[in-house]
Amino acid sequence: MFLSDKWKDYRIVDASGGEKLEYWGKYLLRRPDPIAVWEDKQSIQRWNKVDAWYHRSKKGGGSWQIFNKSIPQEWQIKYRDLTFNVRPTGFKHTGLFPEQAVNWDWISELIKNANRPIKVLNLFAYTGGATVSALAAGAEVCHVDASKGIVTWAKQNVESSGLAERKVRYIVDDCAKFVKREIRRGNKYDGIIMDPPSYGRGPNGEMWKIEDALFGLVSDCVEIMSDNPLFMLINSYTTGLSATVLKNVMQVTTKKKFGGHIDADEIGIPIESGLVLPCGISGRWYTE
User: Fold this and answer.
1) Per-residue pLDDT in tens (0 to 9) along the chain, 288 residues
2) What is the DSSP code (8-state) at residue 181?
3) φ, ψ (nearest 5 deg) of residue 239
4) β-strands 261-270, 2-3 pairing
5) What is the dihedral of CA 167, 171, 176, 177, to 10 degrees?
6) 105 Cβ partners below 8 Å, 6+ apart?
7) 219 Cβ partners below 8 Å, 6+ apart?
8) Alpha helix (H) ranges present in the chain?
9) Disulfide check for 20: which of 33, 98, 186, 223 has CB 3.0–4.6 Å away?
10) What is the Cα–Cα distance from 181 to 183, expressed in whole angstroms?
11) In angstroms, how far is the first alpha carbon of the chain from the final one?
């Protein structure tokens, strides 16, 4: 398993009964997590003394119940020298997937050790955790997401990390269509990151279903990789896909053209109880 265990400003206190209890900086949040199917709450008192608790609605979505009236609408947490702005949203998320820190470290080391300019494409880039990490390591980044508001949030994270002067382009677009245009334009990238949703819609209503679209997207991405590419990273939270599926996709696309190595595994975060919370899968292709 790829384990994200270097956090200081984030930690999972407990996970049980389809929920998790986690510190984001100094604030304790209680959120749903359907993968925590076991029933073994370590401290009922801590579960009941949270700053905010997200309740799902039977009609879909949900809302936050705020217990600490002084909790801000937005605050910052740090990972290494990176700074992220987090806030409880109406969809239970806070704007950051902390398990991805293990992948931020991985791409950061590859970029720093490449000893050459590296150009990275970050697809389905969300609020820019990987973008910030790649910029801090010295790469040039093209950040693509279909949501204008999310891209604005990513800019805020880049600025908060003191990286606004680095080479970064922000694109609001359907990721699959953007890649096809990059093929026609002849643009090339040394590293590609993608974090596609299970289902989604582009800015003009384009439908995305990962089981149908992933292989075609990865195949297209191979066409825009440079002659001397450094890495490709694919993340997935789709229950129907396994690490072996990601490995097979990369085997018959990226590795077939460039050689190199593939690692694919679950990704997770330690829980203070001694368990590990699985948080999806990652496939990594790299040359060195």
Assistant:
1) 999 999 999 999 999 999 999 999 999 999 999 999 999 998 888 999 999 999 988 777 899 999 999 999 999 999 999 999 999 998 899 999 999 999 999 999 999 999 999 999 999 999 999 999 999 999 999 999 999 999 999 999 999 999 999 999 999 999 999 999 999 999 999 999 999 988 877 666 767 788 888 999 999 999 999 999 999 999 998 777 899 999 999 999 999 999 999 999 999 999 999 999 999 999 999 997
2) H
3) -60, -30
4) parallel
5) -120
6) 6, 133
7) 253
8) 44-47, 101-113, 129-136, 148-160, 175-185, 210-223, 243-250, 256-258
9) 33
10) 5
11) 20
- Sorted by sequence, the CB contacts under 8 Å of residue 227 that are 6+ apart come out as 188
Provide the whole-model pTM. Answer: 0.94
Helices 243-250 and 210-223, axial angle in degrees (round to 10) = 30
- Which residue shows structure tokens 């229950």? 239
CA distance linking residue 195 with residue 100, whole number of Å: 10
Three-state SS at 58: coil
Please tell me the distance from the alpha carbon of residue 176 to that of residue 71, in angstroms, as a whole number: 39
State the residue for tokens 């450094």: 230
Alpha-carbon span 181 to 164, nearest angstrom: 26
Phi and psi (nearest 5°) for 257? Answer: -90, -40
Q: How far apart are CA 226 and CA 228, in angstroms?
A: 5
As a whole number of angstroms, the distance between CA 70 and CA 106 comes to 37
Centre a 10 Å sphere on the Cβ of residue 49 and count the other Cβ atoms it contains.
13
Query: Is residue 92 within 8 Å of residue 62, measured between CB atoms?
Result: yes
